[in-house]
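Hi, does anyone understand the following?
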Amino acid sequence: MSEESLPDDARPAYDDAPEEHADALPEYAERVLEVAELIPPGRVMTYGDVAEWLEEGGPRQVGRAMALYGGAVPWWRVVRADGVLLPGHELRALEQYRAESTPLKEASRAAEGHLPRLDMKRARWDGGERAQGHT
């Protein structure tokens, strides 16, 4: 039974929520996206790096925030710690990495799909000079 077919008095309480907050970005997600926007072109941070930067949450929480809300920021700069390209978005991410000259490791012939990985030793960004002023 859909909510539209429920009687007015049986609909969930969130139908009465003020409209101005209906599409509000959760605070944690907003903070994650702010960090993603700080990462310079050609550099990356892992999900865990972002959580550590924020001093809150963990890699899974950062990944969830990026999955739900990261489309408007440079999402390809927040990555897995092993350097594997984001499943389902490999080609779009690879296009961005090449445009930004992000360091890559070419894939071996045995690698699935023959896609490169990020060269995490060279591409990883630690926050640089801004680290002392983060929120």
Q: What stands out?
A: Residues 107 and 115 are 5 Å apart (CA to CA). The longest helix spans residues 27-38.
